[in-house]
Design a protein that fits this description.
Helices cover about 55% and strands about 5% of the residues. By secondary structure, it is mainly alpha-helical. Among the domains are: about 5-60, no CATH class; about 80-135. The chain has a two-stranded antiparallel ribbon. This is Winged helix-turn helix domain-containing protein.
Length: about 200
């Protein structure tokens, strides 16, 4: 039965080979034959205490070794029903529409935990967002995001209607237009990527 030898095993084989080669070139045994643990430690490049621990484990398990923590079970994941999935989707939209923030896993996770009693990890939430049809991709510019908000678009339309109606008035009834200031979006606050719905 040919098992794949992992890199750590190949490294130990190479160290044993180099040790045997050094003994061949010296034409003598470099470590006392009676000190088996020290001899093994010298050949494998490990400490004597590590060799003793491995030998003890091998004697206990009849030469069968298992990687520590390899079969460790992960944290049980809460099964989410359609209601919970819809609530998570609504939370993402809530960030855009009400909070006026870009949702990230860092600021979305506490909200989902509080609202739904969600006890999963950040990585699990990321997978849920992907199954819900969200994609983590490059954000639009903040200026575009603010301009396209419905309430700002409505105010812009009302403003333009007033300007046009003022311009269409006769000269004596026309009011002077005074521009006081311009509003801007804070350009230094920007995220390169955010969660966006595919649809």
């Amino acid at each position: 039965m040919n098992k794949t030898i992992r890199s750590a095993g190949r490294q130990i084989i190479y160290k044993v080979y180099r040790r045997c080669l050094a003994e061949k070139e010296a034409k003598t045994i470099l470590t006392d034959l009676n000190d088996v643990y020290q001899r093994t430690a010298d050949m494998t490049g490990k400490t004597v205490s590590t060799v003793r621990r491995v030998v003890l484990e091998g004697d206990r398990n009849k030469g069968v070794f298992s990687t520590p923590g390899k079969n460790r079970k992960g944290r049980p994941k809460k099964q989410l029903d359609n209601f919970d999935l819809c609530a998570i989707r609504q939370n993402v939209k809530f960030f855009y529409t009400v909070r006026k923030q870009v949702p990230t896993l860092r600021n979305l996770l506490p909200v989902v935990r509080e609202d739904l009693g969600y006890d999963g990890s950040r990585e699990h939430l990321r997978k849920i967002l992907i199954t819900l049809g969200f994609k983590y991709k490059r954000c639009q510019s903040e200026r575009t995001a603010v301009i396209e908000r419905p309430n700002i678009a409505a105010k812009r339309a009302a403003y333009l209607n007033k300007i046009i109606s003022n311009i269409n008035l006769p000269e004596e009834l026309r009011k002077p237009i005074v521009y006081l200031d311009e509003s801007y979006v804070h350009q230094s606050y920007k995220l390169k990527k955010c969660w966006q719905s595919i649809d």
